[in-house]
Amino acid sequence: MSKQKNTLLVILGPTASGKTGVAIELASHFNCEIISADSRQFYKEIPIGTAAPDDKQLSEVKHYFIGNLSIFDEYNVSQFEHDVLNLLNVKFKENPLMIMTGGSGLYIDAVCNGIDDLPDPDEKLREELKLKLQQQGIESLQQQLKDLDPAYYNQVDLQNPKRLLRAIEVCLQTGKPYSELRKSKPAERGFNIIKIGLNLPREKLYNQINLRTEIMINSGWIDEARNVFKYNHLNSLNTVGYKELFKYLSNEWTLELAIEKIKTNTRHYAKRQITWFKRDHEIQWFTPHDTKEIIRFIRTKM
After folding, report:
1. What whole-number distance in Å separates Cα of residue 278 and Cα of residue 124?
2. CA–CA separation, 271 vs 269, rounded Å?
3. Taking a C-beta distance cutoff of 8 angstroms, is the pair 246, 159 a contact?
4. Eight-state DSSP code of residue 237
């Protein structure tokens, strides 16, 4: 492989589609390391609820950007792009292949294509929108974004207020849909990029989501959520799973209802991830059981 051009192999797909296992298998086969592009797995306090690789998996292959931050840390997609590119500059001197895997489409796009040149936030507008979020709830932002930019509304994580706020800001500041402004020319990268998508038939994927939720609950997820419950206002915890468990811990929902809501909202999240990824025609799709075919495909591209 030493004669090959430096290559970033991207393993992406919806949640519970088997990305971690396949990435580890490929990293072992090609003798390389893994970068996580799951923006929830950055936080060291919440490994169970983010389905982060366990100690055994981490011991098999070196991973980066797993548990590297605290829930109290401020971090964004621009910083991630910067940090990953710096890491790749170092690692490609040792090995011409690195794997990046995850389901956070925005973070994957940032590394592969760069961040779009968007206007800086307007502080007054930001405060007005935050006040609206406080007084009227996240549904008000969802509806506003749907009115301003239906295309991005159909792609974004609708439960992430930070992304809703930013998109609405840009729409109001520029008078143009956020989705249009994000279609700038991709940044030039000094390495080859191969994108592998993993997915399952819908019923199987949904069954995997339901099963994994039960396993995570039985592995101590409720205690993990209880340990961070008093920090539930943090953006890092404003994610599927924790929001539902926080409802249980605040006695608003029964545990049974919280678990069912986690399953339902995770399925909705997976559907949005698939919508996001399907717009990228560079992705070659496989099932997580196709590792031999994936390896053959990779070899044709290197």
Report:
1. 36
2. 5
3. no
4. G
Buried b (16+ CB within 10 A) or exposed e, 210-234: beebeebbeeebbebbeebeeebee
- What interhelical angle do 255-278 and 105-113 show, nearest 10? 30
Mean pLDDT per segment of 10 residues, for the chain of length 302 residues?
80 98 98 97 98 96 98 92 97 97 94 83 87 94 95 89 92 88 80 98 98 98 98 93 98 98 97 94 97 97 90
Spell out a b/e string for 126-142, using b for 16 or more CB atoms within 10 Å of the CB, else e.
eeebeebbeeeebeebb
Domain with 175, as residue range(s), is 123-181
Residues 214 and 268 in one domain: yes
CATH no. for residue 133?
1.10.20.140
pTM for this structure? 0.83
Element (H or E) spanning 97, and its range? strand 97-102
Determine the Cα–Cα distance for residues 37 and 109; give it in Å rounded to an integer: 10
| Spatial distance between the Cα atoms of 205 and 211, rounded to a whole number of angstroms | 10
Q: Are 88 and 64 in contact (CB under 8 A)?
A: no
